[in-house]
Structure formats: structure tokens, C-alpha cells
UniProtKB/TrEMBL annotation:
Cross-referenced Gene3D superfamilies: Transcription elongation factor, GreA/GreB, C-terminal domain
Residue ranges occupied by any Transcription elongation factor GreA/GreB C-terminal domain in the UniProt entry: 84-151
Pfam families documented for this protein: GreA_GreB
Segment forming the signal sequence: none
Keywords: Coiled coil, Elongation factor, Protein biosynthesis
Protein name per Swiss-Prot or TrEMBL: GreA/GreB family elongation factor
Record flagged with keyword Transport: no
């Protein structure tokens, strides 16, 4: 029989499902980030997939694989001393005449709306190792960022 008349299964035409991409670089976490990752794994493991539709169960398993990997590779970083901008620091800075405060955290914990930026973000990378009073180049502008204060994040 010719392959032209062969009935292909519907699954042959489905788009492939890929794993959730892992951020590049180390998986640094704060104490809060490690706790949130553990809670996420626990919450996903507690869901009964037996009652789910197959597609939903696959999505849940995929998400669970992501969070288990993030938990297994998490590197809890020591609290910074506050003398220079580092992972785990809360930094107050001035940019474009506006004063802002951000906490420098891990990729999975980052939420710019809550003032948490990833250590791998362009702003965090520009500020790393800077000290209070230092002016930094950012966004193609010289002396665009002024570091006003640096404190360790005080939350668990």
C-alpha cells in the first residue's frame, strides 16, 4: 500500500511540547526565594493529577519538573555585608532624577512590580560591586545611576 493512503494519527500533527526554559547561569536564591521554590514544589506535588484531563496533567508535570530542577540546583547565597551592591542587597538609587529602591534577587523570585529585580538584569549587572555615592554608566549614558544606599534584604 502506498504511504499516500496511510492514515496518520492525529498526534503526528500536534505541535511539540518543550520543557519550560531554564534561565542561563547559576540559580542563586535568597532565603525567601528558596522558601518560595520549596512551597511551589510542595503545592504542585499536592495536586491530584488522576482527576485531570490528560493535557492539564501534562502541563502540571512539566511545571513540576521545572520547579524540582530549580529546587535541586538552588544555591543559597550568603547575605551581603552592605558595603557594596551584591546579590541579596536592597539598593536605593537615583536614575533620571527619580529615586527608586530595588532588591537584587534570583531569577525566579524577581518581580519588578514588587521592586525585586534579577541579579542577571541589566540594571543589577550595572550596579554590582558599586558603593554608596558612586555614579554608574547605564543605558548608554555616563553617570546615569547614583547609588544612594545599600542594605542586606531583611526577610526570610
Amino acid at each position: 500500500m502506498s504511504v499516500a493512503f496511510r492514515r496518520e494519527s492525529d498526534e503526528e500533527h500536534l505541535e511539540p511540547t518543550f520543557e519550560i526554559p531554564l534561565p542561563l547561569g547559576p540559580n542563586w536564591v535568597t532565603e525567601r526565594g528558596l522558601r518560595l521554590t520549596r512551597e511551589k514544589v510542595d503545592a504542585l506535588e499536592a495536586i491530584d493529577i488522576a482527576a485531570m484531563a490528560e493535557d492539564e496533567a501534562k502541563k502540571l508535570k512539566r511545571e513540576l519538573r521545572y520547579w524540582r530542577t530549580r529546587l535541586a540546583t538552588a544555591e543559597l547565597r550568603p547575605a551581603p555585608d552592605g558595603r557594596a551592591v551584591a546579590f541579596g542587597a536592597r539598593v536605593t538609587y537615583r536614575l533620571n532624577g527619580r529615586t527608586k529602591t530595588v532588591a537584587i534577587v534570583g531569577d525566579d523570585e524577581a518581580d519588578p512590580n514588587e521592586g525585586r529585580i534579577s541579579f542577571s538584569s541589566p540594571l543589577a549587572r550595572a550596579m554590582m560591586n558599586a558603593e554608596v555615592g558612586e555614579l554608574l554608566d547605564f543605558g548608554g549614558k555616563a553617570d546615569a545611576v547614583e547609588i544612594l544606599s545599600i542594605d542586606p534584604i531583611q526577610e526570610g
